[in-house]
Amino acid sequence: MKGGGPSLAYALSHWCWKSSSGDSLAASIAATNFAIEGVTGEWSTFVCSSDAYANSFAPSMRRKAMRWLSLHAHYDDAHPWEALEIVATLLGNAPGVDEVDEVKQSIEMSYEYFKLSLDCCL
Prior knowledge:
- Helix 2 (25-48) packs antiparallel against helix 4 (78-91).
- The protein is an all-alpha fold.
- The protein has one domain (11-116): Up-down Bundle (Heme Oxygenase, Chain A).
- It has five helices and no strands.
C-alpha cells in the first residue's frame, strides 16, 4: 500500500490491544465491545447494502471474500448494547467524572482508529 503502508491498517488492532491490556475494564469493554462491534455492524451493513463491493470479486471468490462482511452485516445488533450495559454496571450508579471521561475517550479513540484503518484500506 502507498502513503503509510499497512501499518496504518493495524492501528485499530493495536489500539484495542492497548486498551484491553492497560485501561480499566469499563473503558476497554467500551472501546472494543461497544464501539468497535457497533460500528463494525453498521459499516458492514452499509457495504453489503449494494452489490457493488461484492461484484468487485470474481464470481468464484465472491462468497468467500464476502463471508466476514455478510456475517457482521447480519450480526446480532444487541451485542454492543449489552456491552454498554456491562460498562454501566461496572461504573455503578454514581461514577466519577474521571471514570466517565475515560470511557468516553476510549470510545472516541476507537472511532478514530476505525476511521484511520478504513481510510488506509480504501
